Amino acid sequence: MVAVVGALLVGVPALLAARPGDARADPQELRDRIAASAGVGWTGYAEARATLGLPRIAALADVTTLLSGVTRMRGWYAGPDRARTDVLSAVGERDRYVTPRGQAVWDYGAELLTIVARDPEVRLPRSEDLLPPDLARRLLAGTAPDDPATALPARRVAGVDAAGVRVTVADPETTVDALDVWADPATGLPVAVEVRARGVAEPMISTAFGDLEQGPPDPTALEPRRGPGAGVTRSPTSDLFGVLGRGDGSTLPAVLAGRERVPPERRFPALGQYGTTLGQLIAVPLPADFAATLLGGIDRAGAGRTLTLDGQGSALETPLLSLAVVRSEDGARAWVLAGLVPPAALDSGAADLLAGGRQ
Amino acid sequence: MIRVELIKLAGRPRTWVAIGLLCLLPAVVAVFLATTRISPPPGQGAAFLSAVLQSGSLYPAAALALVLPIFLPVAVAVVAGDAVAGESSQGTLRYLLVRPVRRTALLGAKLVAIVVFVVVAVLSVAGTSYVVGVSLFGAGDPVAVVRALPEVTGGDDAVAGAGSAGGEQPASAGGQVGGSDASQSGARPGTDTGDSTAVADDQAARDRAQSSVSSLSGEALGPADLAARLLGAMGYVVVSMLGVAAIALFLSTVTASSLGATLGALAALITSQVLVSLDAASSVTPYLPTRYWLAWVDFFRDPIFLRDISSGLWLQAGYVVVLMLAAWANFTTKDVTS
Amino acid sequence: MSTRQTQRIDARPPSSGLVIETRGVTKRFGSHVAVDDVDLHVAEGARYGFLGPNGSGKTTMVRMLLGLVYATRGEITVLGATVPHRVADVLPEIGAMVEGPAAYPHLSGRTNLALLDASGPRRGRDGQRRRGRVEEVLERVGLAAVDRRPVRTYSLGMRQRLGLAGALLNRPRLLVLDEPTNGLDPHGIREVRDLLIELNAAGTTVFLSSHLLAEIEALCTTVGVVDRGRLVLEDALDAVRGPTGRLVVRTPDPDGAARLLGRAVAERHDHTLVVDAAPGGPSALARHLVEHGVPLDGLAEQRRSLEDVVVALTGPGSDTARDRRDRA
């Protein structure tokens, strides 16, 4: 009898959770709705699991841990310029408030509220990017309109009977094989996303809501706050690229691995964005000492691939994301190069960087 | 019967030694923190440990974080593991049963006694650590707090500069913004002590100092709010221990060796803790007894994050129901041969 | 509670007159048969001795009577209640000591008794009465003088007395005692025996298990003998120790007596002869001997000893017989 009760207690919730959804939606229509869902407000909790398996590089610890583990997030979303995301840890949290006037980051561990003037469009990935709506919209924006969309079996996610769509990426210049998105067919709000890389059976990134309430969030939750005794600091940017991007962009070529440079954002001339699809490459000049730190970090992690180049280069490659640090022979010029691209694109991009600088 | 079990529990020196040790650990940590003023780096170490330097009234939370992973479950496992097995190996079980005490009632009374033990232990830890925290770190040093809040408090903080020697808050970035206010007003209090405005300012500063504790999300917590959240966290920690208690109590009905039952329960816990941190075991993670142990921290978020807390409550309830049923089924059909 | 109990006692069929009755009780532990098909009958007011060597299943039987161990097969009725299902109803009227005393070692004897008393079902008694009861039983077993010392420091004899005190707390109608005199000195054994006889006289039925023949012989009115799990004898002690039909003759002239009685002499040890009974009984034999000039020092009926019976039933070499010799 005890065994029966135990089995019931374990089984019933598991069955309820595994109960398939029965939502139906035309895949192409759903895709369009998702792309247009940026105005849907919500309050919820999401968990993202990324299995890129990046080694921990001290200088990029935030990114490497983000892409190789579980991230727990609470979110309040009123619109693209009015949102709050709490990244939860066992001993604290880090909250990012997006307001029309800028952003604010509260770090409980550091007891510090940082008021951020502006972050560039091109920036390092951060936890908030893994929220299902953000991830889905950002990645779908990089797909080609004629990439085929097919229906996936519906899923129940955080109480939403969500219809699924798979967008298969045709572009061979990216490692992304397919994007699986489940969204509320009524509002188009994505509730779960799985990112699949070519040649890998399991999704590399999967994120889903655990709790979700649609509709405008409680406005009081969106006000940045700071604990008594905590400090406040103002910073022009909260992103590494926001600092690096203010540098000299003259060493960036116009074309990289066959991708044309997108005109740089104002005030961030040194951020090189090549291409607008998922296969885009990002190149940013690095100060010599920072390049040395990164190269050293990649070497120490022992997972890097040494690029065969005129200069010096090490690449960290995962089935999804690849990243390389390239330095000229004389050590005067260095770049970081990254993208959801296959190794070949990284190689040719690195060569183009070295060659472009020489011209 | 419950009363008898409580008297028995209270009559054992071991009970008080366990509670004493539980209270001692946070006290020792507090003494080291207070003398060295070296707090663990942000994001590392036990929760709230770096925050207590600012206000001792948060120390009960830090103390819970310190005893929760090992000390508290060990104490619970020892007491619960001994509950039936101890009576059995002492031979007193047979005398209780022929008294007669119904086996179901005995099991229930044991469970209640264990719960009371956990409650008393958690209350003692929280109580002693509050006293230790406030006496060593102060209930939020007014000077430190007010100095750190320059642009919020503006110019009306006459008391702010009065005892600047006591402020240990490192010059934070915030200090730069409105630091001039504090230094200007610092000259005043010496001259107009005793006048009514100073008293009022004094009061205001004390009020501010009292709400000098921040939630994880940066919300200032008043004393009542803090107390409510602490109570919630303590209640949740008590419930978190019920799973351990149920495992140990069940094993205690299976074996006549208290040590066996205790170690069995601890082995289950360690297995659970290992599996919780193992990604490959994610399919069973939601059912592991220690899965939601850390969720008490969520009481200190803003708004309070109830998802894991309620999952944890359900999970512990499930463990208690299943294991107590198993214990009951085993115990009531068992030959008492010791 | 009290009214319910009274009703139940009234409702119990008085016809059987048996306080303990078992039918075909068998207990297996795995493949080992500890108790095999035992039928016990303990009459109200009896002092029943349950005799058997160590390991013969006595303790298992006692535990089954109290509902601690569940019988594999068979029926048990104690004070009219079926065991184990209804045993809780009658346990308040039973005082028991099973396989040695047990107490919380860190508490005093008095506290132990108070706790034991308090764990029982409440019967509307207040704390005062309870304390009084504890004092009373401590007095009865001769522990009134000890105080505050934790049981940990007690001698085996004191623990035994404490266990007995615990059994007496309820003023039981039935006392089930397993080896109650273990660890007591001869003086203590005597005290316990007197106490049990006194309680029995006041109406308490005593069921006592022991491996000591002498103890049973000295105390009990009825005896049940168990050997390797089987009940081999159950009878009144007087019946067991009945006359053998022979007479024991003590005489300063055993040769003359032997000559005179001839074939009737069954045994001869120095000045003592065991003689088959002749018609007319002892008086006729005495007259016969004296008339023929054989002087007599004494003449008595020969009675069986319990030992003889037990040895005959269980075979020589068993613990029971050895113990008897050791004690002699």
Write structural notes for this entry:
The complex is a heterotrimer of chains A (about 350), B (about 350) and C (about 325). Chain A has about 350 residues and is α+β, with helices and mostly antiparallel strands. Chain A has two domains: about 20-235, Lipoprotein localisation LolA/LolB/LppX (outer membrane lipoprotein receptor (LolB), chain A); about 245-359, Protein Transport Mog1p, Chain A (3-Layer(aba) Sandwich). Helices cover about 20% and strands about 35% of the residues of chain A. Chain A has a twelve-stranded mixed beta sheet, with helices on one face. Chain A starts with a helix and ends with a helix. Chain B is an all-alpha fold. Chain B folds into two domains: about 1-135 and about 220-330, no CATH class; about 140-210, no CATH class. In chain B, about 65% of the residues lie in helices and about 0% in strands. Chain B is built from 13 helices and two strands, in the order ααααααααααββααα. Chain B has helices at about 1-10, 15-35, 60-65, 70-90, 90-95, 105-135, 140-150, 150-155, 175-185, 195-210, 225-255, 260-275, 305-330, and strands at about 215, 220. In chain B, β1 (about 215) and β2 form a beta hairpin. Chain B is globular, with a radius of gyration of 24 Å. Chain C folds into two domains: about 1-240, P-loop containing nucleotide triphosphate hydrolases (Rossmann fold, 3-Layer(aba) Sandwich); about 245-305, Alpha-Beta Plaits (2-Layer Sandwich). In chain C, the strands form three sheets. In chain C, strands 7-8-9-4-10-11 form a six-stranded mixed beta sheet, sandwiched between helices. In chain C, α4 (about 110-120) packs across α5 (about 125-140) and α5 (about 125-140) packs across α6 (about 155-170). Chain C is elongated. Chain C starts with a helix and ends with a helix. The model of chain C is unreliable at about 1-15 and about 320-328 (pLDDT under 50). At the A-B interface, α1 and β12 of A face α7, α9, β1 and α13 of B.
